[in-house]
Each structure stands twice: as structure tokens, then as C-alpha cells.
Amino acid sequence: MPEIILAVSSCILIRHIIPDVLNSLRNKALVLNHNHCVYSTEEEAQRDLGIEKDKLGLNNLEIKVRFDDKNETAASKLTVGGPYEIILGTVRNRLGLGHELYHIYKHEKHGYTFWRWLFMPVEEWKATSYALQNHK
What we know:
By secondary structure, the chain is α+β, with helices and mostly antiparallel strands.
């Protein structure tokens, strides 16, 4: 079944599209928030996802959380004909969850166009800002 990758939030990818200063700030945010609200199970992350979905008015969407031990990145994707999925790598915290949920929110609100892809560094920064503002 075809998949549409909505966003990939990884230090490796971001180094190539966001200036080093912004990347440095984002990495510091990950380090600062790594020990706060780290998820041990997918069920814990799914519970927080429900709270965050409510804040963004996305209650009608089916979104699943899945852990992936093979890498440290977080990503969101939509399988055509299936639910959205947030994949949390080895850094499993509310910051990554909120960041990827913001990408889903923007996709639902605006879809993805050429211009959105062109301004992906701005979208990455907005998603990180949203996650930091809502991270407690």
C-alpha cells in the first residue's frame, strides 16, 4: 500500500535543511526534554496523543503511535486508505510526539503543496516551537 511521508524530524535531515544555529537550539531542546515525560510504552504515548489531538481539534482522526528501535528519529506518515502514524525512534518523549502531531495538523488543514515543501525549514521550526510551547 503506498505511503505518504508527512515529515521526518531527525537531527541528520535537519542539519541539511536548517541552519546550524536553529539545529543547535533544537538539539538542546531535545536534550533538555529527553528526561521529561519519556514514554516507556506505546500506550503511554497514545494516551498523551489523545490529549494533544483534543487541543488541535483532531479528535476525528485515527492516529497510531509506534516505537521504532532502529533509529533515533521521529516521523509522521499517512498510509493511503489507512490511519496516520507517528513513529517515535529511540528518543520517545512528548516533544517528538507534539512535533509530529503538528505536522499532521498542518497536513489536515492545508495539505501539502509545492510551496509547503519549499518552505520545509520554516515548517520544521514551527513544529518544534509548537511542541516546546505545549511540552510540560
